Amino acid sequence: MKGIVAQYTHRVIEFSQKKLIAKNMKKIVLVLFSVLLIVSALHSQTVSADTFNYPEKGSLPKPYHPEENAQKKLAELIKQATASHKNIFIQAGGNWCSWCLRFNYFVHNQAELNAILDTNYLYYHLNFSPENKNEAVFSKYLAKDTRYGYPLFIILSSTGELLCVQESGILEEGKGYNTEKVKQFLLKWVPAKCNK
Question: Cα dist. 116→26, 122, 123 in Å?
Fold first, then answer.
């Protein structure tokens, strides 16, 4: 009888252990599933944090003015920049350029980027199109015989000194622009940093 009781006790203990293991496995699976859901949710937030919806090209604002005298306008901007202690952010391109229109829309519709621009820069759209190539202005700031993509950014100090020429490619991501890259680019050339 002792053998039967011992055997029965052993089976009860074994059954209890299996039941305990099964119960713990359910908890472990539930915890792992929860962690996986949380990580997935965080990842989707990270990916969508820089997702920006652009309107169709036809409905984007057209900031370039082919009829404008760019030399005269830049002379006026340099006077304003000197008085306001701001740098000049020139976005070269044209209304024909979807990337140019997207950049303009992007920085004006991202509150933080728009604030950086408004606080530190005078923003100008330098036209390049068959109607007006603004060759005199481009030859003043760009290396001769060098090809550039558009938009092209030219940063001038408040006194009109050339600080930077940069194509937009390094700021792009997917079919638009990366907020953090654009922000770092703008912050790199704010007047306080440039004058240190």
Answer: 52, 11, 11
> Other CB atoms closer than 10 Å to residue 75's CB: what's the count?
11
User: How are the residues of the chain apportioned to helix, strand and coil, as percentages rounded to the nearest 5?
Assistant: 55, 15, 30
- Asked if the bond preceding 191 is cis, omega within 30° of 0, the reply is no
pLDDT digits (tens, 9 = 90+) for 123-168: 999 999 999 999 999 999 999 888 999 999 999 999 999 999 999 9
Q: What is the dihedral of CA 170, 149, 142, 186, to 10 degrees?
A: -30
162 DSSP β-pair partners? 156
Contact between 126 and 137 (Cβ < 8 Å) = yes
Q: Percent of the chain beyond pLDDT 90?
A: 66
Nearest in space to 95 (alpha carbons), one of 87, 86, 104, 108 = 104
Q: How confident is the model at residue 35 (pLDDT cuts 50, 70, 90)?
A: low
